[in-house]
UniProtKB/TrEMBL annotation:
It comes from Dicrurus megarhynchus. GO terms for molecular function: ATP hydrolysis activity; ligase activity; ubiquitin-protein transferase activity. Keywords: Ligase. InterPro entries: RNF213 (IPR031248). GO terms for cellular component: cytosol; membrane; nucleolus. GO terms for biological process: negative regulation of non-canonical Wnt signaling pathway; sprouting angiogenesis; ubiquitin-dependent protein catabolic process. This is RN213 ligase.
Length: 80
């Protein structure tokens, strides 16, 4: 949710890191963002769960990768 919210606001995601245990927005706002970005017109709960699970894994791996660390790559992959 934190990434999707900032993506919609046009923020630079290259320097953002997930903040564990922090609460942002309401459950309604979270559900709206998931529905907007999941890519399915009328998703089931299982489809929403799979979308959030997959997105979470991808973002976690991205944060752990040295190649996605802006301090390491500097400006060579800006916006990647």
């Amino acid at each position: 949710f934190q990434y999707l919210k900032r993506f919609d606001q046009g923020c630079d995601l290259d320097t953002f890191w997930y903040e564990a245990l922090s609460v942002e927005g309401s459950p309604m706002e979270c559900l709206q963002l998931f529905l907007l970005h999941c890519g399915i017109m009328d998703p089931s709960w299982a489809e929403l769960r799979n979308f959030t699970w997959f997105l979470n894994i991808q973002l976690r791996d991205c944060e752990a990768s040295v190649f996605c660390n802006p301090d390491f790559v500097q400006d060579t992959l800006k916006g990647f």
